[in-house]
Amino acid sequence: MKSRFVLELIINSIVILLFLGAGISVFILNQTAEEYSYILLGTISIIVGVCKGVIYLLNGGIHNHKNVTFVTSVGMIFLGLFFFLGNKDIDTLCFGWGLMELMIGLIEVYIDILETSEGKKTAPFEMMVNIGSIVFAILLCIKTGDGLKAHLIFLSISLVLNALIHASTIYKTIKERNNND
C-alpha cells in the first residue's frame, strides 16, 4: 500500500514537472516552440496519458477523488499520436489541446460540484484552477486575430494550470493519506 502511494506521488510529480517545464518553455521560446510544438504536445499527451492510466490501474480501476479515468488517459494518448502524425499547424494543435482541456476541465468541475453536494470539501483553489483551465481551453479553440503569439501565451498558461491541478492532486492525496493513518 505504501509503495503504491509513493509510486503515485512520483508519477504525479513527473507530470507536474512536464507541464511546468513545457509551459515555461513555450512562454520563453516563442518561435522555437512554434516549430517543435507538435513534438512537445505529442510527447506530453502520450506520457501524461500513460501516467494517468497507470494511476488508474494503481487505484484498482476505480474512479476516485483524483478524477483519473480510463477515458481521459486513452484520449490523451490518442491526441498525442495525432499531434505526432497529424497536421503540424499551430492553430490545429492549439485547437486539439484546447478541446482536450475543455473536456477534462468540465469533468473536473462537474466532479468538484458533485463532491461539494455530497458534503465533501472541495478546495476553492482547485475549483478556480479548473475554471481557469476551461477559460484558457476555450481561448485555445478560438482563432484569435493576434495569431501565433496569443495562442502560444494561452498554451503556456494552460500547461502551467495543468501543473497546478496535478499539484493540488498530490496535496489531496497526502492529506487523505494522513487522515487515514
Keywords:
181 residues; mainly alpha; 83% helix; globular
Protein model, in words:
The protein has 181 residues and is mainly alpha-helical. The chain has 6 helices and no strands. It is globular. The two termini are 12 Å apart. The mean pLDDT is 78.
Principal-axes shape call: globular
Number of DSSP helical runs: 6
Largest sheet: none
- Number of domain units: 1
Structural class: mainly alpha
Percent of residues in beta strands? under 5%
Runs in which pLDDT lies below 50 for 5 or more consecutive residues are none
Mean pLDDT: 78
What is the helix fraction of residues, given as a range? over 70%
Short account of what is shown:
The chain is mostly helical. It has helices spanning 2-28, 30-58, 70-85, 90-117, 124-141, 148-180.
Give the arrangement of secondary structure elements.
Elements: H1 2-28, H2 30-58, H3 70-85, H4 90-117, H5 124-141, H6 148-180
